Amino acid sequence: MNLNAREKLILVVVLVVVLWIAGIVTFIKPSIDDMKSAQETLDKKKIELAEKQERIRQDENLKQDIRDAYNKVIETGEIFYPKMVQHDAGTVMQDLLDVDGDDKNGQEIKNDNLSISPMSKASLTKYVYTPTEVQATLEKIASQMDPGGETKKVKPNKSSLTAYNFATHFTATKADCQTFMENLINNEHKSMVINSFSVSQVGDNDEKTEWDCSMSLTMYMIPTLKDPDIVNAQIESGVTVNALSDVAE
After folding, report:
1. Domain coordinates of the chain in residue numbers?
2. Tell me: the pLDDT tens digits for 157-211?
3. How, if at all, do strands 158-173 and 192-201 pair?
4. How far apart are the C-alpha atoms of 84 and 223, rounded to whole Å?
5. In this predicted structure, what is the pLDDT of residue 112?
């Protein structure tokens, strides 16, 4: 078949276009796809890098933050007795009953008996004061709803602590009983709590009158938190670490 010059030109142009399209499909498009995928991977890595840099920035003062948190915990925990064995708890109680702290004078509050329970768990509930507000019915319903439309449920915030319970029947003067109460208030550890106190005989009810009394108390305790520097040193040396200096129950 003989082709004239015009037809030959058209055929050449068509072949060139076909070869150009084939080259794009075979070589250029995969390269573009690879470049697009690489760009997406790069963008993700940039985001990861920015997040890690932000975490590093936030952790710049981590050591000091840990130290500050430790000091805060120690300060808060000072109101509680450290966790101790039963014998040591009994000694603490005997020392408290010696109201003037003078062993030579003996125990001003004379125990007929002093019992101490085994170590147990006791719960403390936080109480939050909420002032009384007058609300219409619709306002009251709205205040109990969250954005999702579910009624809010108030959960009690309880903390479980280790404790010993004491019970004693004793005789002491009115003045010594009052001193004992004041000593509890002024005690470094505020977690010795009187649960009940009763007086069966008050006599003339003057300062030197000897009272016949019964009393129950609870000693709340928390384990001692180890210094973070000591914990870090133990971890670095390969020692299995418990951050609490605990006492066997």
Report:
1. 7-50, 83-123+157-225
2. 556 788 999 998 888 888 888 888 888 888 888 888 889 999 887 777 778 888 8
3. unpaired
4. 8
5. 74
Q: Which residues, including other chains, have CB under 8 Å from residue 125's CB and lie 6 or more apart?
A: 156, 157, 158
Q: How many C-beta atoms lie closer than 10 Å to residue 222's C-beta?
A: 18
* Matching CATH number, 83-123+157-225, of 3.30.70.60, 2.60.40.1940, 3.40.718.10, 3.40.50.970: 3.30.70.60
Q: Which amino acid is at 48?
A: E
In whole angstroms, what is the distance from residue 125 CA to residue 137 CA? 30
| Long-range pairs, 105-112, Cβ under 8 A, ≥24 | 108/172, 108/173, 108/176, 108/179, 109/170, 109/171, 109/172, 109/176, 109/177, 109/180, 110/170, 110/171, 110/172, 111/168, 111/169, 111/170, 112/168, 112/169, 112/170, 112/171
29 close to 190: Cβ distance less than 8 angstroms: no
Q: What is the dihedral of CA 170, 191, 121, 130, to 10 degrees?
A: 120
